[in-house]
Amino acid sequence: MAHTTIKVESSIRDRLAMLAAEKGTTIAGLVGEFATHTLTQSERDEQVAKTLGVLHALSGYAPDPEQNRTADDELTRRLGGA
Prior knowledge:
By secondary structure, the chain is an all-alpha fold. The chain is about 75% helix and about 0% strand. The radius of gyration is 19 Å and the shape is elongated. The protein starts with 9 loop residues before the first helix and ends with a helix. This is Toxin-antitoxin system antitoxin subunit.
């Protein structure tokens, strides 16, 4: 497996080292875990489309763009208070 170097400010490196130590891993492990488990925007969009397709197939519910925006705004509001 080939390795590469990622340059970050020393304060970021130190924080990554602290986070990795708390998880019992290395900075490389921490970055790898993040990259493996974090979806890209296109992956998130694909999941949303699949979820809405299943929702529509099971219940007939097909929100319009305004309903989506309203739901997104409500979720953002609720998560902001968490």
